[in-house]
């Protein structure tokens, strides 16, 4: 590769103002929020304004086999957006226009840089709802959400990003700008290539436009059900009981004492007075009997206290405490974020194993969880600069992944593989399935330029 | 290829009783229900009893590059299961065991030959529900449903087969038996290979086991809303109005006068007295106001009469008339089945175009539709033996596909591409996207043995 000639070729692909070579700015765009995931050195950062500019950048990179690392807001937690050596960082956050909201067909068409909450607010004005709600929704982009198949709080009832992506426009490994998927409610004309690109973490191409399916904005006042437990495993038993009872909450979140304390220390919300471990449930059907049944599950599993209400302000305070848990913990030191997902009946067992690892290895593990999905986020918090603790934390990180696999679960429920979960994912799927991944990667990205070294 | 040596190799792969060489039996298994789709001559029919036997058969075929054509119940409508010359027909209907129903995790694990209605009945005994309900549900298999990503009546609210497939066991093109997907509620460990195999019509591998997600059996008594219209386009306007009103029925079916008459001629149900074109809606939330709103949409769009009730028997009679429409029409002559899907607001325009084609070309077109999805099934009925009419029918068939594409729709909403929709699908997706299909096909089926000539 000849850097000068290459930069000249880039300059023909998009305006000079859209090419950034300042090392500090490049460094600031060279990683996501995953602690300790390695990052490489980029040769350029580009900020295209259109799909055509993305296509031109990919063509230039393809010619010289320069790696392309696409990124949205950089809120990922697995290192998927981290720079690799010699790459072009393709920042899509500037392509942030909502192109269309079709109320009658219940769909929206957006550029990849549209922020999740912005889309939600815009469609709410039409009485519509875009359900996927990762905790990063105030900052993360729909492009990044699609690339990682992001989840969130309401997934337990409403599904994940892939369930809402109808169609994509992508730049392919052969440099074409193509449309995958559809605008209609149903369609089986060929392979589900849009679904394949969702969750592929930028390794198969670059997403330049997304068509999402929308639901009607819920009309019922949601009921919030809160239960306080004196142990993690006790709360886990309530989760298993809820699943066994066939209750379908629209949220079932767990927040433990470490998180409550961290949020209190930061925002003084008085959460630690509520209990050691909280379960926050929501029933959005307007069915008072189901809300009572959920509270009954909490009580029968040994809740210290429980309550239910339709008070929106109170509910918002509790759910925002859950959202604040992660940034509150980050104030205490680097956080190694897990994302395992296990069968719901095994949530108590998985939580018990996590607690044992914390004790055995002498590390602090805080727990938040999309508990109703069996999707747990044990957060391993390490004092800044303590290298020995860091080594122990990394050992626990891998041990928890192995436990999830042993319980029939997965190493990543919603954050993606990126760099941090590669060993775990390979252990989970096995060599034969990894070979299928490699075959697809080679087929769609023959030059191997898209986000190399991620996932596989 | 040496037939004798090849048959000997097959005999090592599975018991002699599972290999059928009788030409009549082979011929009877050489096609699905798609009228006029070409069929080839198979060299053998095999009926494996286990995934391991499927693997062994594929290995034998792979060695000699003998095409493998998998089939379930043969109820497909696009020719996807039709024999190609020199193929082995791989009949999976004998692998029909339900391996597991897990009430707490709300999932079931089944072999591919389990009939859709059998699964629905079995899980209902546990208070659970498998939503996808193609009209073929009394006969079609879950394996075939997964291979074609089958839809049905309740898709308008509950989605299609892919939305319920969590994991698959498949035999790959390199002869391995692998597991794709997961058992947990969420998971993003690698590419969505299970989703890619769903709807791939047997062209990427053979499905030997399916893990499906289940819902809780609905508890509310559904409300049935019926509207009679004096024209197809009038009924289409009611469909568009329903979409615009943001109503979410759990079924919204259209049946026209040709179908009503055909069912009456066969079963004497007195349907023709009800009106020219019927819309059958269902609201399953227990929300009387929403049921009234749906009826209001029918009335405002010009319904001749309308009614709503919670009478289960009455509702069952009407919906069974809709299911009987297709076999009733088949009694009148060969039926060329369309499966276009258009944006819901364009249902009236698409129906008007279909009517014009019928008039212009002098062909009989009956209409049934999953109208709420925009998924229309114009059925072109031809008098048996009338070759001239057949030519006109085939011309109209292609013209309707082109109209669907022109309206931003798809040539196939739920039946699949098979053989009949190849030209239409290629016109819909374009050469660049077709190239992506070919690349994936080559990557996963390097020997090109799986259902060659279908889709691409």
**Overall residue-averaged pLDDT value of chain A:** 96
CATH class of the largest domain in chain A: Alpha Beta
Distance between the termini of chain A: 24 Å
Biggest contact = A-B, 82 and 82 residues
CATH superfamily of the largest domain in chain A: FAD-linked oxidases, C-terminal domain
CATH topology of the largest domain in chain A: Vanillyl-alcohol Oxidase, Chain A, domain 3
Q: In what range is the share of β-strand residues of chain A? A: 15-25%
**CA gyration radius of chain A, whole angstroms:** 22 Å
**What's the number of structural domains of chain A?**
3
* Helix-residue proportion of chain A: 25-40%
Uncertain residue segments of chain A: none
What does the main sheet of chain A amount to? 7 strands, antiparallel
How would you briefly describe this protein structure?
The first copy, chain A, is built from 14 helices and 18 strands.
Protein model, in words:
With 456 residues, chain A is α+β, with helices and mostly antiparallel strands. Chain A folds into 3 domains: 3-91, 2-Layer Sandwich (Uridine Diphospho-n-acetylenolpyruvylglucosamine Reductase, domain 2), CATH 3.30.43.10; 98-216, 2-Layer Sandwich (Uridine Diphospho-n-acetylenolpyruvylglucosamine Reductase, domain 3), CATH 3.30.465; 223-406, FAD-linked oxidases, C-terminal domain (Vanillyl-alcohol Oxidase, Chain A, domain 3), CATH 3.40.462. Helices cover 37% and strands 20% of the residues of chain A. Chain A is built from 14 helices and 18 strands. In chain A, the strands form 4 sheets. The first copy, chain A, has a 7-stranded antiparallel beta sheet with strand order 15-12-14-13-17-18-16, sandwiched between helices. A 5-stranded antiparallel beta sheet of chain A has the order 5-6-10-8-9. In chain A, strand 5 (98-102) and strand 6 form a beta hairpin. In chain A, helix 8 (232-244) packs across helix 10 and helix 8 runs antiparallel to helix 12. The longest helix of chain A has 23 residues, at 422-444. The model of chain A has no long low-confidence stretch (mean pLDDT 96). Chains A, B: This is Glycolate oxidase. Chains A, B: Pfam families: FAD-oxidase_C, FAD_binding_4. Chains A, B: Its cofactor is FAD. Chains A, B: Keywords: FAD, Flavoprotein, Oxidoreductase. Chains A, B: InterPro entries: FAD-bd_oxidored_4_C, FAD-bd_PCMH, FAD-bd_PCMH-like_sf, FAD-bd_PCMH_sub2, FAD-linked_Oxase-like_C, FAD-linked_OxidoTrans_Type4, Oxid_FAD_bind_N, Vanillyl_alc_oxidase_C-sub2.
